[in-house]
Amino acid sequence: MLNILKQRHDNVQTVLAGCRRQLLNASGPTYTGVSQTAQRNLPVRTFAAVRTLKKDKKEEPEKEEKKEKRVIDDSNRHKPYGKTAWAPVDDVYIIRHYPRTVYDVSDTIDMLKNFQVLDFTPRSQPVYIDLKLDMKLEKKRRVDPFVSTVHLPYPIKTQMNKVLVFTEDANQAKVAQESGAMFVGGAELIQPILDDEISADFYIAVPDMLPKILPLKNKLRKKFPKNKRGSVGTNIPKMLDLFKTGHEYMVESDCYVRTQIAMLDMPKEHIFSNLQTVLIDVCSHRPADMGPFIERAIIASHTSEALWFKSGDVLPKPAEKKQEE
User: Fold this and answer.
1) Are strands 102-103 and 247-252 parallel, antiparallel or unpaired?
2) End-to-end Cα separation, the chain, in angstroms
3) pLDDT for 273-292, tens place per residue?
4) Do the beta carbons of residue 225 and residue 205 sit within 8 Å?
5) Which of 84, 204, 265, 298 is a Cys-bridge partner for 97, taking CB atoms 3.0 to 4.6 Å apart?
6) pTM here?
7) In this structure, are residues 163 and 205 in contact, taking their beta carbons and an 8 Å threshold?
8) Which residue, among 282, 241, 240, 243, has the nearest Cα to 261 in the 3D structure?
9) CB 310 within 8 A of CB 168
10) Residue 89: exposure state from Cβ atoms within 10 A (0-12, 13-18, ≥19)
11) For 189, how many CA atoms within 13 A lie in the half-sphere containing its CB?
């Protein structure tokens, strides 16, 4: 029994020794000539880092060309592009399905008066216009927003505007008072104006007074006398005649003119005449050869809906201008 166990023990050791040799042979060649005292930590050789190549600059994406606005000619179409028909058949319809109606000026005034009767609204209510202007000029230039005063043929206000005249000349002061100026004076009026003791609707001045009244520039702002507005000059009676009964309007938000032109209870001819006067004065601020200055024109009373009208019908035709000249 002991012999059998001893024989098995020898066989196991033989097998283990064979496995150990196979593992050593698989791991690589053995070096028998190396001294046991050899340096175990071999020096590591360092190499210079490879210089990284600069990445090519990202190619800038080509700027997309602005697509020109597509203009669709509806002149020969049986219906407008994207709309249901040229005009609605029924009295009740969805507005966006049909092109907006642009009326003649004469028709819009009649409609405003009819709206007042049907709605039982006051007859004495203001009439307003809302104009959108094309402020473009040649070579990317634009018309600067402006303020203008126009003499309406049929005034809206029943009372005259208060006008203050800046002058230190005794003769000019006398002429200003005789012409209807509310206040006349020189530098002594600056402090009362700053203290709100004196106020006026319009301020005019002779050229010599402009450097002296500069402290009022922030106080008066748009009312400060300027050559462009016609509030600086030596012809005091003419300026007073304009500003005492003049109607002032201005360009808002870069291209819009919103102003009152009449009262609804005025005769139709008076409303038309006031409207024509304002439109002609507006168009005088841009050369006529640049094309139409008014892109869109709306008229409405205080309680009515807005009506689009044809501004070109109000303005004088080029042939009429030549005859006048």
Assistant:
1) unpaired
2) 147
3) 999 999 999 999 998 888 89
4) yes
5) 84
6) 0.69
7) no
8) 282
9) no
10) exposed
11) 23
